[in-house]
Amino acid sequence: MQRVTSRQNERLREVARLIASSRDRRKSGRCVLEGAHLIDVYTARVGAPETLVVVDDRLDDPAIEKLIERVHPARVLVLSRTLFADLATLPPDVGALAVVTAPRAAPAAPGRFCLVLEDVQDPGNVGSMIRSAAAAGVDQVVLSPHCAFAWSPKALRAGQGAHFLTTLVEGVDLEAWIDAFQAAGGQLVGTVVDRAPNLYATDLRGRVALAIGGEGTGLSQALLAKANRRLTIPMAPDCESLNAAAAAAVVLFECVRQRANAPP
Fold first, then answer.
1. Distance CA 101, CA 30 (A)
2. What is the pLDDT of residues 197-251, one digit of tens each?
3. Scanning 10, 105, 124, 145, which has the fewest C-beta atoms within 10 Å of its C-beta?
4. How many domains does the chain have?
């Protein structure tokens, strides 16, 4: 392990650049995981991180010790609390962060149960929807080119490890993807605020892709025109529409309910 005492350490400066710059993360194909839980999920599913940064007074924490055992000593940097606080977006109590290669799935044949995100701007919403999708057993989460970067620190925190439990495909030409999905027998279901059948009266079994639009704008007319069906979540009168991530969770788990109760 290497004990680092200066902010000018080149490896530490590289970590700082990745934390600070979305452009650097996208360009390098790497991201930063903060906290032992996220790093543990990554190492179990993908492999050892490129660099592990730990707080010196947490070296005897069992969760941190477990991570260190999985990483070559030359890749472990040990920092003081003060230096770690200057570097990370979360407080030193998280104990560790890691630089990793962001898993990138190549466009593949559409699965049977998919979530399609069109121009969702808030990385927290993107991460929350990925978390709900993984919990619901979604095969693929497909993101348009103008969605927030799925591997940003905020999206990763919101996902709590779910990024490594489902397949994420970013920068997708959604219209072309939908054409392929429908050609394979899939049904695109578009979520809208009103003037559509009730979610709970809509058959969501079979090969289905749920489409969620951006905050405030919803789905584009181009995607709605391709939808086989539309649905809306019933709500009490005079209430604002649900947050995009909350709406996605409601619809995803109605799919789960219906599939669990479907006849064999």
1. 4
2. 899 999 999 999 999 998 888 999 999 999 999 999 998 887 877 899 999 999 9
3. 10
4. 2
